[in-house]
Amino acid sequence: SDDPICRRVKVTDPQGKVTEYKYDDLGRLVKVIQTLNSGEVNEQKLETEYGYDEGGRLIWLEDAQNRRTNYEYDKVGRRITVQLPEGQRSTTTYDAVGNLKTVTDFNHETTTYIYDEQNRLLFKDLEDDADVTYVYTLNGQIAQIVDGRGTTEFNYDQQGRLIARKDPTGSYLASGFTIEYDYDLGGNVTQLRTPAGIVNYSYDEQNRLKAVTEDGQTTTYLYDRVGNLKQTQFPNSIVERRFYDELNRLELLETVRIDPATGNETRLAKFEYTLNEAGHRTSVAETLRHPLTNQLVERTVHYKYDDLYRLIEERVMGTTQTITYTYDLVGNRLTKTDASGTTQYRYNQNDRLLEEQVNGVVVTSYSYDDNGNTTTRTQNGQTTTYVWDDQNRLVEVVTPSGTIGYAYDDDNIRVSQTVGGVTTSYLVDKNQPYAQVLAEYVNGNLEASYVYGLDLIEQERATAEWFYLVDGLGSTRSLTDANGVVTDSYTYDAFGNLIDSVGGTENSYLFAGEQFDEQLEQYYLRQRYYNSSIGRFTRRDSYEGRLNEPVTLHRYLYGNANPISFIDPSGLTGLAMELSASFSIEARLAATAYLMVTTKSYQPEPLEGFGAGPRPNLPNHTGHLPDTSLESILGKLIGFGASRPNLPRNHTGHPKDKSLDDLVNYVFSSTFRGPAAGGFDWEHIMDRHAPWGRVAQQSGRKDIFYGLTEKEIQKAVKNAWKNREKFQTQDDAVYEVRRIRYQGVDQESGYVIEMWFNQNTNIVETAYPVEKI
Question: Phi first, then psi: what are they for 695, rounded to 5°?
Answer without folding.
Answer: -65, -40
